[in-house]
Specification:
By secondary structure, this protein is mainly β. The protein contains one helix and 16 strands. Strands 1, 2, 3, 4, 5, 8, 9, 10, 11, 12, 13 and 16 form a twelve-stranded mixed β-sheet that branches.
Length: 315
């Protein structure tokens, strides 16, 4: 998901909600209240709490049909002018891109942002988590499973639409919450939060959540720890990562505002450790200037039309 020469995927995620306003888009909206009654956590099994967390999350979705944002990626090398000195910036791994996204299929027009008013050519992208290109968009489905296989072509790859937030079904006094991707072997109370430890029921490489923290009254997400991977294209293989996501609310829409990634060594079955070469231990991605326009031109989302609109490209 994190792009590294168009070959890096996410490896693990820690998601935290920020109550400050990092969006640079005006005042944040308050956390929206779900339109259904939430039973107290003391009366529920942990897996039921997870079901309600999912339901609360999906009650704020789907996201707006269009969104725009600026992605700022900051990466450093693993070497500096001398031992112990700050590492050099990585000129290939650090850049700024502007995105215009249609959320129904995550098709996007992108342009690299250079100094002043200089912009790069129009390029098609399909931002998504766990893919070998830049992650996104800010309104991405945080409960979306990782794909079965790595995708290399964002034009051919179309994400599966996320589930709709249908009401819970009642059969007598039994409430069906749907089959969860996870067991919840442990739930504890930490001040105003519930801490749930998750265990994937199926493929742990697709169901990447490992721990979540939620508000114990509203069941709104506050923090998530998840597993994922960093893929390299130079034969070095796959490396685990820990990613910190910062979240906030904009127009009552939960959005990701920052990724802070820490690359971990890969450990072979015999105990041998490998460290990815040339890249520093951290990668940061900031989403700035997030907006939700009411409409965008249809040709933004068809790269075959870009050459016909060179004079109309957005800035």
């Amino acid at each position: 998901m994190l792009k590294n020469s168009l070959a890096a995927l996410f490896a693990a995620a820690v998601i935290a909600v920020s109550l400050a306003n990092p969006l640079r888009t005006g005042a944040q909206s308050p956390t929206p209240a779900p339109q259904f009654t939430l039973p107290p956590y003391q009366t529920l099994e942990p897996v039921r709490v997870l079901g309600l967390v999912r339901r609360v999350f999906r009650s704020h979705r789907p996201p707006p049909p269009y969104e725009t944002y600026t992605l700022v990626r900051t990466q450093f090398t693993d070497y500096g002018p001398e031992p112990g000195a700050s590492p050099y910036p990585d000129p290939e791994g650090s850049y700024t891109m502007h995105y215009w996204v249609r959320n129904v299929d995550r098709a996007a027009l992108t342009r690299e942002v250079f100094r002043d008013d200089a912009r790069g050519p129009a390029a098609f992208m399909r931002p998504a988590l766990n893919e070998p290109w830049d992650p996104g968009p800010p309104t991405v489905d945080l409960f979306e499973p990782a794909p079965l296989h790595k995708h290399n072509n964002p034009q051919a790859f179309v994400p599966t639409p996320e589930p709709s937030g249908e009401p819970l079904k009642t059969i007598g006094s039994v409430i069906a919450i749907g089959e969860s991707d996870y067991d919840v072997p442990q739930m504890t109370v930490e001040h105003n939060l519930l801490h749930l430890v998750l265990k994937p029921r199926r493929d742990p490489e697709r169901n990447v959540l490992r721990e979540i923290w939620v508000d114990k009254h509203s069941y709104e997400l506050r923090k998530i720890i998840a597993h994922d991977r960093l893929f390299t294209e130079d034969g070095e293989g796959i490396f685990p990562m820990i990613i910190t996501y910062t979240l906030g609310y904009l127009s009552q829409q939960l959005v990701v505002t920052r990724f802070h990634g820490v690359i971990l060594p890969r450990v072979d079955p015999d105990g041998t450790q490998h460290v990815v070469a040339g890249i520093g231990s951290t990668i940061d991605i900031d989403f700035q200037d997030i907006t939700f326009p009411s409409s965008l031109p249809a040709w933004y989302f068809d790269p075959r039309h870009y050459a016909q609109h060179l004079d109309d490209l957005p800035q």
